[in-house]
């Protein structure tokens, strides 16, 4: 394994840290303030000859680092999806490296934080992600290049982090960014349809909450002290919408949700869960009980009686302070000054493909559109596309950084086809596809 000594820049940072007051909890301090990770046996996923390290950083976040025997001197810093709720568990690190072992198999070092807190906290997760990069550089090795990879909600984390550490006209900490299956419309826009789901589901089912339970605004997800379990919510959904063989009335309700919200039938339960417990986290921990969502003037279309639906659903106005707080943590400025490749499945049932239009719009607004390449595949998956896709994107980013050769969707597809001999089949790129605006998927309202 290759080790490096502490460079002059790190020594200078350490000297400055010794003269300053201690950073607030969670802030990204200099790498010298972080303890060295502990060598450990690698969990399942990486090659047998890879080396791994574990640790818990100064803010309390667990992390895992992996390095292949044939390291190519490039580090991939990974921001995982979610967000998970509750107390973070060290086991999450094992789950992530198992899913993303392809990075290590392709010769890249890998470093990922579990994040120090559960919940919808984008900036905090970004701080933890930057901290694990510093730990790698300080205690493991100094990479030739560093690529930031964000998956799903972690793509929001990575994009926000890149706006801070790879902004235009700055000396970037990260050389390139890979965003996969990204939730990239900003918090209120990306999650707005889940408020629509809550109000339409309640209009159709009237059991979340039930009439004899305490009533609350649905944008809150649940009352703060609610004891509702996921199993209990699933039972309510099954009672209303059925499962498998449905009655004509149950099928009508399912069809209404699918046709109005344009979500797959199989993802209704998952989105309703997120619109319950994630909304609860947002309301009570992120926006001080202020509503960041609106459906006041939204016109719902696609049911068998749109007039009755629009008259019957509950309506909520966003609180400007709630919008502001949520936007400060989740919304993008689009100011990224290094190469960015965004990959997305056209049939993604969780993060709609139209979110890529929102990403493009934000980078155009930030004056950074020249740094963005978007490519789409014919998969219908969210969590993982196919093994050859990710090494292909990383190699294209490195060529862009090192040789100035900006890729295209077509060149990425061509490179992926060639990589199938090494990493197996699964590319499925749609090189001419362009997503519709986000308003084509989510009923229009301010911000969409």
The CATH homology group name of the largest domain: Alpha/Beta hydrolase fold, catalytic domain
- Percent in helix: 40-55%
Average pLDDT score: 93
- In this structure, how is the largest beta sheet organized? 9 strands, mixed
* CATH topology tier name of the largest domain: Rossmann fold
Write the H/E string, N to C.
HEEEEHHEHEHEHHHHHHEHEHH
Question: Can you walk through the features of this model?
Answer:
This protein is an alpha/beta fold. The chain contains 14 helices and 9 strands. It has 2 domains: 8-185 and 330-440, Alpha/Beta hydrolase fold, catalytic domain (Rossmann fold, 3-Layer(aba) Sandwich); 188-327, no CATH class. The longest helix is centred in the middle third of the chain and has 19 residues, at 187-205. The protein is globular. The model is unreliable at 1-25 (pLDDT under 50).
Short characterization:
The protein has helices at residues 8-19, 91-99, 101-105, 122-139, 153-165, 187-205, 230-241, 248-261, 268-286, 306-312, 320-330, 355-365, 389-403, 409-423; strands spanning 38-40, 51-56, 62-67, 74-79, 109-113, 145-151, 176-180, 340-345, 372-377. The chain is α/β, with parallel strands linked by helices and 448 residues long. A 9-stranded mixed sheet has the order 1-2-3-5-4-6-7-8-9, with helices on both faces.
State the main characteristics.
448 residues, alpha/beta, 14 helices, globular
What layout of secondary structure does this protein have?
Layout: H1 8-19, E1 38-40, E2 51-56, E3 62-67, E4 74-79, H2 91-99, H3 101-105, E5 109-113, H4 122-139, E6 145-151, H5 153-165, E7 176-180, H6 187-205, H7 230-241, H8 248-261, H9 268-286, H10 306-312, H11 320-330, E8 340-345, H12 355-365, E9 372-377, H13 389-403, H14 409-423
Parallel strand pairs: 4-5, 4-6, 6-7, 7-8, 8-9
Antiparallel strand pairs: 1-2, 2-3, 3-5
Helix pairs in contact: 4-5, 6-9, 13-14
């Amino acid at each position: 394994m290759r080790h490096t000594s502490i460079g002059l820049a790190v020594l200078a940072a350490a000297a400055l840290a010794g003269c300053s007051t201690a950073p607030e909890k969670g802030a990204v301090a200099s790498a010298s303030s972080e303890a060295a990770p502990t060598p450990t046996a690698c969990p399942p996923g990486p090659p047998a000859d890879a080396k791994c390290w574990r640790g818990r950083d100064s803010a309390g976040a667990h992390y895992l680092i992996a390095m292949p025997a044939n390291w190519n001197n490039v580090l991939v810093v990974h921001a995982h999806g979610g967000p998970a709720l509750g107390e973070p568990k060290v086991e999450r690190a094992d789950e992530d490296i198992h899913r993303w072992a392809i990075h290590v198999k392709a010769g890249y070092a890998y470093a990922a934080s579990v994040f120090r807190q559960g919940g919808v906290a984008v900036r905090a997760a970004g701080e933890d992600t930057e901290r694990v990069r510093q730990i790698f550089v300080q205690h493991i090795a100094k990479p030739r290049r560093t690529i930031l990879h964000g998956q799903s909600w972690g793509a929001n984390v990575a994009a926000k982090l890149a706006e801070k550490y790879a902004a235009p006209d700055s000396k970037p900490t990260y050389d390139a960014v890979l965003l996969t299956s990204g939730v990239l419309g900003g918090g209120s826009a990306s999650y707005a349809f889940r408020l629509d789901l809550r109000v339409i589901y309640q209009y159709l089912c009237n059991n979340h909450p039930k009439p004899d339970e305490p009533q609350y605004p649905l944008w809150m997800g649940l009352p703060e002290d609610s004891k509702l379990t996921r199993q209990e919510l699933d039972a309510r959904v099954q009672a209303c919408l059925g499962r498998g063989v449905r009655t004509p009335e149950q099928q009508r309700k399912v069809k209404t949700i699918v046709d109005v919200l344009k979500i797959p039938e199989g993802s209704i339960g998952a989105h309703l869960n997120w619109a319950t417990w994630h909304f609860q986290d947002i309301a009570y921990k992120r926006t001080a009980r202020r509503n960041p969502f609106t459906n006041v003037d939204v016109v719902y279309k696609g049911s068998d009686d749109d007039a009755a639906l629009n008259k019957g659903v509950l309506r909520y106005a966003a609180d400007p302070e709630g919008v502001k707080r949520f936007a400060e943590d989740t919304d993008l400025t689009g100011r990224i000054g290094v190469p960015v490749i965004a990959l997305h499945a056209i049939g993604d049932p969780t993060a709609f493909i139209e979110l890529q239009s929102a990403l493009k719009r934000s980078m155009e607004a930030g004056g950074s559109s020249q740094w963005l390449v978007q490519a789409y595949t014919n998969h219908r998956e969210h969590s993982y596309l196919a093994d050859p896709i990710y090494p292909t994107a990383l190699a294209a980013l490195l060529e862009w950084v090192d040789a100035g050769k900006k890729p295209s969707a077509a060149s990425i597809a061509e490179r992926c086809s060639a990589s199938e001999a090494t990493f197996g089949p699964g590319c499925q790129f749609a090189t001419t596809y362009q997503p519709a605006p986000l308003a084509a998927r989510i009923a229009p309202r301010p911000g969409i």
